[in-house]
Each structure stands twice: as structure tokens, then as C-alpha cells.
């Protein structure tokens, strides 16, 4: 193979590895967030942001093409962070 192809393969492998790592992180945070959603005291707008991010994940409209899930993961991580901050300020969860 030519050198250019090896570069393309390496970049594709790096993107796939990054996506897998971020998806694993996201899965852990989604499980924790689901528990937070069941607790009382979290403002409704933060719950709406979280569910809106989940809808964005399933939506066919994306900032980046679908094989690259970095935009979807980023939107969900921001929503989870917003929900976690609201839970901390409401006294539902403690900051780590």
C-alpha cells in the first residue's frame, strides 16, 4: 500500500478509537443521569435539555455525518453535564 493509504487508515482508526472511548464514557454517564432524573428537585428545563439531546442523537439531522458520532456524543455530554450541575445545585447529588 502507498503511504497515503496508511495515513488514511491511521486517521480512520484514531476516529473509531475516539468514538468508542467517548461512547463508553457516555454510557456510564447516561446510567448515572437516569438515576438523577428519577430524583426530585431537578428543574424541568434541565430534564428537557437532556431529553432533547437524546432526540438529537436519534435524529437524522447532524452537524457531522452519521458514521462520525462525535457531535452526537458531545451534545449528550453537554446535556449530562448541565443536568449534573442542576442536581448538585438542587442538593440531589454531590460534586466529585
UniProtKB/TrEMBL annotation:
GO cellular component, one term: endomembrane system
Location relative to the cell: Endomembrane system
Domain of life of the organism encoding this protein: Bacteria
Signal peptide, first to last residue: none
InterPro entries in the record: DUF1232
A Pfam family per the record: DUF1232
UniProt KW keywords: Membrane, Transmembrane, Transmembrane helix
Coiled coil segments of this chain: none
Domain DUF1232: 47-78
Protein name in UniProt: DUF1232 domain-containing protein
Species in which this protein is naturally found: Streptomyces lunaelactis
